[in-house]
Amino acid sequence: xxxxxxxxxxxxxxIGVYDWERKHQQRLIVDVExxxxxxxxxQTDDVENTLNYAEIAQGITVFAANSQFKLIEALASxxxxxxxxxxxxxxxxxxxxxxxxxxxxxxxxxxxxxxxQTF
Length: 119
Hints:
Layout: E1 2-13, E2 26-36, H1 39-44, H2 53-66, H3 72-86, E3 90-98, E4 110-116
Antiparallel strand pairs: 1-2, 2-3, 3-4
């Protein structure tokens, strides 16, 4: 399976369980691995035969900005589901969602989900 990686995508989201977290959007970092058959794109050199990673990055950014989940687990899981539903070429999505600014004594807190296309 071929893969496209988008790494270190900064997004803003209203996320958190505490009242102080829900007052302002917070910075999150998305790393996503998109698995698909990219052989046609490689053969034809035609953007219509691949995943438009600019469109995917923009979609993730908008998805995060419009979300109001409390947990990064919920946001990450729903984000993966949205990707699989929106981009039919995708076979497997692995998404790591980081909340780097939440613990003073830790560099990062993250969750990771991997899901496959079911149809």
